[in-house]
Amino acid sequence: MPRRTIVKGAAWSVPVIAAAMAVPMASASGEGVTGNSPIPSGVCSAVGDFTVSVTTNGSATVGALVSVTLPTGLSWAGGASNPRTFITDVSGTATISGVVGPSKPGTYVVVASVGSGATMVSTTIPVFVQGTWIVTGPGTSGAPLHAVYTNPSDTGNLGTATCYAYCIEHNVTGPNGKVGFVGAVGSFLGSNNFNNGVTTSYNGSSAALSASQVQAKVEWLMLHSYPNVSMDAVVASAGQTGQGLTLNDVIEATQYAIWSYTDMPYIADNWPFADYDYTPGATQSARYYAAKALFNYLAAGAWNDTATAPSSCLKVLSSAKAECTTPTGASHLQSLAMVCDCA
To answer: How far apart are alpha carbons 343 and 337 in whole angstroms?
Structure first.
């Protein structure tokens, strides 16, 4: 087969931010090959048509067979993922259509090749798949933070989180390794005090809180605790510096303070913060009392806050139980709240 050059161009229908990258490769004959990245697509959605152009000695090659190989995760419409062959038209261009994006965001590399063996020339075509990705951590003991990543390039090597989110439904399984859908507080799919309001009491006082007031208290708690405020600063504000509190203690106290407003009663004195000793009559540690004091500091701060509604920065993050489906009230995982744009 004569020396060839494959050039891939793009014509996309998805109106999102364009990203371009030249990807040089060396063909068997030493001839340079370049490719252009497509406009990003979303998870589980059609990638859109793109083109692969073939030239021979600078002229368009008509009738060239272009083999397109999809990476793991991408598929053709209908579910198949085996390589497919396309033929260039009178302009030397083959239109590649029917590619469907994966269930995880990231960068996926499509390979388009002409020829075989020593005469094969190829180009790589990065496909950028956008989405919000959620994993659990840090935090343990049933009250972890959730790390949120916006448009990660590799879900297997995530790096620094874009944001962290707390749970607002206690008795619903939390998302881990799931796509997230971000919305305003009105997008909450659950049914608890967060969207219904509640009449509750704290430290001898009672109040009828509207849903907006509950949401405002959830926002206050996140804005005044980790990670929007450093662990050391939160502990110091509670007057508990030097008592052995851990990051998990801070996260746990914050999470249970949030649940105290959304769907749980205030925690009784014997709730096992930190290293609570269940032995009857046991003397609890300084760390235990410090963790309980931290919880009460946060719960009281939210109680005393006078905001009647949250700011527009408070967002709700939802996930579906099944991949490539939209979460609904009956099929969502635990809803999360985040204030990344507020800090």
So the answer is: 14
